[in-house]
């Protein structure tokens, strides 16, 4: 069941989305060579709490930290750690989800450490472009699968693959609501968009194959099966009368 947001809820979604975006801007200067992913986690946690919000990942189905930090071949759900030191050439995704006044804002972006290889930089840039292609497809009365279709059309020409096991999601007063948002074309997303729908668009793009594996030791960390690089960008969006509004922007 897809829950449409009313005017009062949309105002709260805007506030939550804005705060999530602010966390990413706040953390950016700290994302450097020699920094640990745990330090990034601690700083984000403190910022979110001081802003009167709750870091949604913490204790979510047992997730142990406040943000996700996914480095290089980690696709998503990387767990910040004091033993993980960022090094020159790394790329990482930081995924922030906050709960503010009962509503969720969810956004992520890539960061580059020092001198990053051309292929890593291109993968990140093109993944961001792919997310925007998906967002630009959004308008009332189209089928949701147009989002995945637009992403697929743009990204596959580079020889990259789209992760199939994870997708975007409806979002509101819960972290993950209906619908599931596929980032590739499938009639499973033959759902008509209506003003008031809120969902994330968060393509995970691999340089190699689409297959992923989940760590047996921590139960969370998802990596590419072939150990190729992976990138991801995420925004929370609202379907409006004429198109869409990105909620996770400053
Ligand atoms: N923020 C992620 C998403 O975009 C979900 C993280 S769940 C966690 O849906 F438990 F790993 F934090
Ligand atoms: Co999300
Ligand atoms: Co997220």
Fold and architecture overview:
This protein is α+β, with helices and mostly antiparallel strands. The chain is 26% helix and 25% strand. It contains four helices and 15 strands. The protein has helices at residues 7-27, 37-50, 118-137, 145-155, and strands at 54-55, 68-71, 74-76, 91-100, 103-112, 161-162, 168-170, 177-181, 198-201, 204-206, 212-214, 222-224, 230-232, 235-239, 244-246. The longest helix is centred in the first third of the chain and has 21 residues, at 7-27. The model has no long low-confidence stretch (mean pLDDT 98). It binds 2-amino-4-trifluoromethylsulfanyl-butyric acid (MF3) and cobalt (II) ion (2 copies).
TL;DR of this structure?
This protein is an alpha+beta fold and 250 residues long. The protein contains four helices and 15 strands. Strand 11 and strand 12 form a beta hairpin.
Architecture blueprint of SSEs:
Layout: H1 7-27, H2 37-50, E1 54-55, E2 68-71, E3 74-76, E4 91-100, E5 103-112, H3 118-137, H4 145-155, E6 161-162, E7 168-170, E8 177-181, E9 198-201, E10 204-206, E11 212-214, E12 222-224, E13 230-232, E14 235-239, E15 244-246
Antiparallel strand pairs: 1-4, 2-4, 3-12, 4-5, 6-10, 7-8, 9-14, 10-13, 11-12, 14-15
Residues 95, 97, 106, 108, 202, 234 line the site of one cobalt (II) ion.
């Amino acid at each position: 069941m897809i829950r449409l947001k009313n005017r009062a809820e949309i105002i709260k979604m805007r506030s939550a989305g804005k705060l999530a975006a602010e966390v990413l801007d706040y953390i950016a200067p700290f994302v450097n060579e020699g920094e640990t992913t745990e330090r990034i986690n601690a700083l984000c946690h403190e910022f979110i709490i001081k802003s009167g919000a709750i870091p949604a990942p913490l204790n979510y189905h047992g997730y142990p930290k406040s943000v996700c930090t996914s480095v290089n071949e980690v696709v998503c759900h990387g767990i910040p750690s004091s033993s993980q030191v960022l090094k020159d050439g790394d790329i990482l995704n930081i995924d922030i989800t906050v709960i503010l006044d009962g509503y969720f804002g969810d956004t992520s972006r890539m960061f580059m450490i020092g001198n990053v290889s051309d292929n890593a930089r291109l993968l990140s840039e093109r993944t961001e472009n792919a997310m925007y292609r998906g967002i630009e497809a959004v308008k009332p009365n189209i089928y949701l699968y147009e989002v995945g279709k637009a992403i697929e059309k743009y990204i596959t020409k580079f020889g990259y693959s789209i992760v199939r096991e994870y997708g975007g999601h409806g979002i509101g007063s819960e972290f993950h609501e209906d619908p599931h948002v596929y980032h590739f074309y499938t009639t499973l997303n033959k759902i008509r968009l209506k003003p008031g729908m809120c969902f994330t668009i968060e393509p995970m793009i691999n340089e190699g194959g689409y297959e992923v594996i989940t760590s047996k030791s921590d139960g969370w960390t998802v990596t590419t099966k072939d150990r190729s690089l992976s990138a991801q960008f995420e925004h929370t969006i609202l379907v409006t009368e004429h198109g869409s509004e990105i909620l996770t922007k400053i």
